[in-house]
Amino acid sequence: MDKVILKNLKFDLAVGFDAWRRYGKPQPVSVNLEIHPRSNLEAAAAQDDVNLSLDYGKLYKSISAVLANSGPYQTIHVLIDQLAQLMPEYAFLDIDILFPKALLQVNKGVLYRLQVDNSTPGVMTPTLTLDIKGIACSCIIGVNPHERLYKQSLSMDISIPVITTALGPEPTETHYTAELHDMVDEIIERVKGSSYHTLEALASAVAQVVTLSYGHTVAKVRVEKPSAIATIEAAAVEVTRSKTFFENKDFWKVKRP
């Protein structure tokens, strides 16, 4: 399917809390857009005429003009709604919004990913996913005798689907708040005091915190272990666990000497 892409638009915007839990402070934001028009780009290609396509230059200027004079945004949802309203007619829309410095102990930032299916007239289906990328933590992890002596550095990604039924500035759930900071801080502290033989058990324990302690219905957790094998970048395990999975299970009790 044909699409027009605007890659890595850079802004400084005040959205929710910054890494220091201060409201209304600008922080770097990177936006990626993929717009799938209702009709393909064949006519523009055949006649080599930009007027028959989606003019990405005009779109960029309109986005930049609006964002330069807006904010602070109380939540990420307000920013997403404003961006969506600036889009031309489309069948499908992808908006990625990355906050590279949103959390102090997260190396790769916080990513919000909106996908909208508008292919059926009168029926718009948006979904929103939150990715926390590169949480820096450490613990005793591994089965080898030398791995039981020292903590190893780990990198962790957490992906949480944010269920939404409509675009708008006032959703029923607000995820870009201090609660996100609290969740990451708790995970880092609990991992620091833990000891496991397997990445599988540790990843499941983290998913347990995300779902049971912070109310998310499902969590995808990826844990990378850079020191696992000397000749590769990292070994990793990724698990997806629902809240109901943890009924009568407690992976934080799986501790190894």
UniProtKB/TrEMBL annotation:
Keyword Lyase belongs to the record: yes
Pfam families (alphabetical): FolB
GO MF terms, alphabetically ordered: dihydroneopterin aldolase activity
Enzyme category, top tier: lyase
UniProt record similarity statement: Belongs to the DHNA family.
GO BP terms: folic acid biosynthetic process
Keywords: Folate biosynthesis, Lyase
Organism: Exophiala spinifera
Superkingdom: Eukaryota
Protein name: dihydroneopterin aldolase
Database matches in InterPro entries: Dihydroneopterin_aldolase, FolB_dom, GTP-CH-I_C/QueF
EC number: 4.1.2.25
Catalytic activity: 7,8-dihydroneopterin = 6-hydroxymethyl-7,8-dihydropterin + glycolaldehyde
A GO cellular component annotation in the UniProt record: cytoplasm
Keyword Protein transport (UniProt): no
Pathway as given in its UniProt record: Cofactor biosynthesis; tetrahydrofolate biosynthesis; 2-amino-4-hydroxy-6-hydroxymethyl-7,8-dihydropteridine diphosphate from 7,8-dihydroneopterin triphosphate: step 3/4
Domain Dihydroneopterin aldolase/epimerase as annotated: residue spans: 4-113, 130-241
